[in-house]
Design goal:
Layout: E1 21-28, H1 35-45, E2 50-57, H2 64-72, E3 78-82, H3 88-99, E4 105-108, E5 113-114, H4 119-130, E6 134-141, H5 146-155, H6 158-161, H7 165-168, E7 173-175, E8 179-184, H8 185-190, H9 202-212, E9 217-227, H10 233-254, H11 260-263, H12 268-274, H13 286-306, H14 310-313, H15 315-341
Parallel strand pairs: 1-2, 1-4, 2-3, 6-9
Antiparallel strand pairs: 4-8, 5-9, 6-8, 7-9
Helix pairs in contact: 5-15, 9-10, 10-15, 12-15
């Protein structure tokens, strides 16, 4: 795990100045389609806030760095940082190590999303009001093409998110985990920042350490982010395969027990694999049939409730997510077991 050093080692909420200094970091890789609009949006959101905007690029080949370099001449306090390790956890750690001194808050921005015009100000006000060490937000998932719309509906529903608070909405409460938005840099540094061995689920892993160190995580209901899901089945599968592996690493690292909403999907990959036995024993197909029927039934329920036929198609990305997450989880467990045996 890469450590992010700092001088403030207190886990008590510090006195934040009336005009806190903010480090806003955008980890990105091949985001030429969205980066200029994001930079203009957050430049306008500064107001009177002292905010340094850092784009940490992981080796984009679509012209993203060129766009940022051009905009450095237009937008003050904007810098481009090379992230040779490519992943988001490393980007955040490097940005804090390089530019975090003398700044109070860290805001993390996902280049694959969109944000309300008052996003930064709402986060800062919530942090100050509640003396929170971390402020997390809910996610509203939106799609455009047929598959992306179906994936968005799945991810916004219990079928796809299992009732996760930061996916299901809500806010205005202390939580164990949520979509990362703002953190006190002193708290971030004290626990060592993100674990760079995690390419996925690094946020939940960091939240575990924050809570163990006595820091508090506030889920705000005052703002949110808009997320755009993967637009193809293969990309969605790869993404959730990584999520599953990350969740397994997290649970093994901290010797924690998965929640029920996480434990139920674990059965999907073994059930699908076991269906091969149906060639010899017909009853081996029963578990996978039950899972598929349950998904289709829930999709039909959403389609009727939302009066949206695309909701029925949400069963397809939902099943892809279930299978990929479960497969990733078991792949990681087996990989670690092989390492121990060796």
């Amino acid at each position: 795990m890469s450590s992010v050093s700092g001088s403030d080692m207190s886990n008590q909420p510090s006195e934040i100045p009336a005009n806190p200094r903010v480090l806003l970091v955008i980890p990105c890789l091949n985001e030429a389609k969205t980066i200029e609009a994001l930079l203009r949006k957050f430049s306008l959101q500064r107001g009177e806030t002292d905010m340094l905007i850092v784009v940490a690029d992981g080796g984009s080949r679509d012209g993203t760095p060129d766009i940022v370099r051009r905009m450095i001449g237009e937008i003050p306090d904007l810098v481009l940082l090379d992230n040779p390790k490519r992943i988001q956890s490393a980007a955040m750690n490097l940005a804090v190590k390089t530019y975090g001194d003398g700044r109070d808050y860290l805001i993390r921005i996902d280049a694959h999303g969109d944000y309300p015009d008052n996003y930064c100000q709402a986060l800062i006000e919530e942090a100050v009001t509640h003396r929170a060490d971390s402020v997390v937000v809910g996610m509203e998932t939106v799609g455009f093409g047929a598959f992306q719309q179906a994936a968005a509906i799945a991810q916004n529903s219990k079928l796809g998110n299992g009732g996760s608070k930061h996916r299901a909405g809500g806010g205005g409460e202390w939580v164990d985990h949520g979509h990362h938005a703002l953190m006190r840099i002193a708290a971030y540094r004290q626990v060592g920042g993100y674990d760079e061995s995690f390419s996925h689920n690094e946020d939940a892993e960091l939240d575990f350490r924050l809570r163990n160190a006595g820091f508090r995580i506030w889920m705000t209901g005052e703002t949110f982010m808009t997320y755009y899901p993967r637009s193809s089945a293969s990309a969605l599968f790869r993404q959730y395969l990584g999520y599953g592996r990350g969740r397994a690493k997290n649970l093994l690292k901290h010797r924690s027990i998965p929640k029920i909403r996480q434990a139920i999907p674990l059965a999907v990959a073994p059930v699908v694999a076991g269906a091969v036995l149906a060639l010899l024993y017909w009853w081996a197909a029963v578990p996978v049939a039950v899972w598929m029927i349950a998904c289709i039934a829930y999709g039909a329920y959403m389609a009727v409730g939302q009066r949206n036929a695309i909701a029925l198609l949400a069963t397809i990305p939902a099943m892809i997510m279930h299978l990929a997450w479960s497969a990733g989880f078991w792949m990681e467990l087996l990989r670690i077991r092989r390492k121990k045996v060796a």
